[in-house]
Amino acid sequence: MILKNIDLNLLIFLDVLLREKNVTRAAEQLGITQPAMSNGLKRLRTIFDDPLLIRSSEGMTPTERALELQPLLRQALSDIQKVLEPNQSFDPKESNRMFRIMASDYAEATIVPSLVKELRKSAPNIVLDFLTPSDVSYKDMEQGRVDMAINRFNEMPQSFHQVTVWTDSFSCLLNRKNPAAESFTLESYLAAQHIWVSKTGMGVGFGMNPEKSGQLGWIDQALQGIGEKRKISIFTRHYQMPALIAESNDLIATLPTRVALLQANNTKLVVLPPPFVISPFELKMAWSPLLQPNLAHKWLRNLIMGVAKKIEETS
What we know:
Elements: H1 9-20, H2 23-30, H3 34-48, E1 53-56, E2 59-62, H4 64-84, E3 98-103, H5 105-110, H6 112-122, E4 127-131, H7 138-142, E5 148-151, E6 161-168, E7 170-175, H8 179-182, H9 186-191, E8 193-197, H10 218-225, E9 231-236, H11 241-245, E10 251-256, H12 257-260, E11 269-272, E12 281-287, H13 295-314
Parallel strand pairs: 3-4, 3-5, 8-9, 8-10
Antiparallel strand pairs: 1-2, 5-12, 6-12, 7-10, 7-11
């Protein structure tokens, strides 16, 4: 059996399963779904060519092979933890650790500036390496090479831990002199030209096809739902671009509200609610189970959530 072909998260699954002897409780402890845990157990049985846990009148009973594996597994995971966390304590003021964070352009525009400001006060020697979604694969995250991802996810491996950072709505950004601003209706919205901004996912992106509006994201899907389609003349993957482009009198950018409000003091622009319903979305933070118990990682997760809460309270 070749180690590189094994998902090391499964060893954590097995350790918890052997301790809990219950699929549901093990799933709850790891913060994953019961189907994900059941699927993990199925994969483990294939890897070890053994049932590992068998249903009995007393619940799930470990096989002889599982009992042999348990102390070896505990020691292996303990050794891995020591590699990931050589110190038993973590002092952010003294630490010079580097954290690698995959952040979408939306996350970089909204939460990262406040996070960096807070870090300069509480942990001035810590180094942050921000990666784009196209720089990172789910495998990188599973193996702990990337500390966490802050993004909007359409899908995510069930083994990952995740938390909702916040929920955001959409707003429209346009020049005050734009004719549509005088009477901002669905009719004037559709008559105007638009700027499309990517809802960034994992992996390398490709060119857009304006004809396939159903594949262009939440805004165009919402329009499709009411039988309408907007005229897109600019495609961009960066949330800082629309504010500059929207200064053109005839263009409208429909953006997440927290991004649009970054331009609230720009006297050339106005922020308006869209003239149709667009479902809100969640910004999530996700990380590998391998990093769940790491003290430094836990500290950063709590700091990010604290910063997000302050932003929510003031917006």
